Amino acid sequence: MSPRLSSGRFSSSPSYELLTCIIKKPLFSYAHLELLSKSGAPQPLDNLQVKAYCSAALRQFLGLTGAAMSMDILAIHGADCWVRVPHDCLASFSAALTAWRGSRENGSHCLLRVKHCSDWLGTMVGAEGQERLWNS
C-alpha cells in the first residue's frame, strides 16, 4: 500500500506496464452452421452443398449483393460446418441463413441453422456442450 500523505490521501506509486496489446477490428468473422433435415438420419455435408445452400439463402435475402458475398468454408464434420465471411458481412450472412426456408431434395426438407457466430474463432472453440446445458 502507498504511504499516507499529510492530507490523508495516498501517494501514487509508480506503475509499470508489462505488456501492451492492441486488438484491432478483425478482417473476418466466423459462423458455425448445422444441417437440419426432416428425415430421421442427419446427412453428412460436403463443400458443394454448403456453398449451394449459403448462396441460395444469400441470393434470396440480398439479391445480387448476397450472391457476390465472399465466403470461405473452413471445416466440415458430419452435419456441422464452419465458415468465414468478411467482418462487415456477418450480420447480413446470419440474417440470410436465419430467414432462409431451406431446400427440398429427394423428398426431404434441408436447411442450415446458425449455431454460433463470432468475430473471433477462438471464442467458438469448446462451445459444443452449451446447447445441451440449456436444453436439459
TrEMBL record:
Pfam families: Pop8. Residues 28-100 form the Ribonucleases P/MRP subunit Pop8-like domain. InterPro entries: Pop8, Pop8-like_dom. One of its GO terms (cellular component) is nucleolar ribonuclease P complex. Signal peptide: none annotated. It comes from the Eukaryota. GO terms for molecular function: ribonuclease MRP activity; ribonuclease P activity. GO terms for biological process: intronic box C/D snoRNA processing; nuclear-transcribed mRNA catabolic process, RNase MRP-dependent; tRNA processing. Coiled coil: none annotated. This is Ribonucleases P/MRP subunit Pop8-like domain-containing protein. It comes from Ophiocordyceps australis.
